[in-house]
Amino acid sequence: MQGNAADAYDPKLLYLKEKEVINSSEIGYFTFTYPPMFLLILAPLAYFPYLASLGLWLGATLAFYALMIRKISGYRQAIIPALAFPAVFLTIGHGQNAFLTTGLLAGALYYLDRKPDVAGIMLGLLTFKPHLGIIIPIVLIATGHWRVFVVATVTTLALAAASLAFFGLETWQAFFASNALAFEVLDKGLLPYHKMQSLFANIRLMGASVSIAYTLQIIYAFLVICIVTWIWVKPADRLLKNAALATSILMITPFLLDYDLTILSVAIACLAVYGSEHGFRGIPINLLVIAWLSSILFRLLNASIPFPWAQLMLCVLLAKIYLLARESRQNNSEYDLS
């Protein structure tokens, strides 16, 4: 709890603090590009020594992640494969927030119709990582989940106001000023592209220009949004809708690191439950296995053979979900006519 919160967005000051905390001058620079709302969550951890706060952070968010996977799957046994998911170990190794983002998404989907206010609050909290939520308001509006949408919006505004009150206007100004650095990191590959799993990063890794990579990413994202919105608007099993939304989040953003694939556990859990209830005829087990291994498998592949491996897998996964949703709708129609 030292200094000015706005210093978190000053690369030089942040790097000095990172070296001081780690007690090493050899570490690389770790950027902080989250909106000031995230500082509300992190601030209490500053009262503890670094290792203690890291342990508290990872322990609490991991427990939350496991609980929400348990809820959305409906099976206590789902906790074991969720904790063994390779992306979990990447998240722990990086001290990252993927457990929190995945838990909030899983919880919001679970409570969407059960407790709309809770779902809205969870989605509002998820806005600390806005690039992962691009499709969420579109789906909420398209499906008429207005209460959830309004509560999520109010929660977001309340968090922004609270961070403004606690940390001051200069912190928000510093955050917006730091966005240029965030785009520079992405555009110039200052964060190695082989660690990233987005279409944009993979296309750049293959040698394409920034403009071409962005153009392909935008077209790709638009198509994914259309497909997933269709799945949600039409009658289909909620497990398939949840799996489609979780999968699409990983396809739309140009900024996707390997530990962000923790979100894929939501899709895998939902598809595994759907398969156990309806049969795995339309869900190849080997596809689920590849999805489960994806966070490590595709990082290694990208380093040696540049290609959008993760996005190819996600495309196949989303295509399977689309076909299952269409089949589910047709079966329901036949049942209604009989």
TrEMBL record:
Membrane spanning stretches: 47-67, 79-112, 118-141, 148-168, 212-233, 245-271, 283-301, 307-325
Membrane-topology descriptor: Multi-pass membrane protein
GO cellular component: plasma membrane
Keyword list, A-Z: Cell membrane, Membrane, Transferase, Transmembrane, Transmembrane helix
Localization in the cell: Cell membrane
Pfam families: GT87
GO molecular function, one term: hexosyltransferase activity
Family named by the database record: Belongs to the glycosyltransferase 87 family.
Protein's name in the database: DUF2029 domain-containing protein
Domain of life of the organism encoding this protein: Bacteria
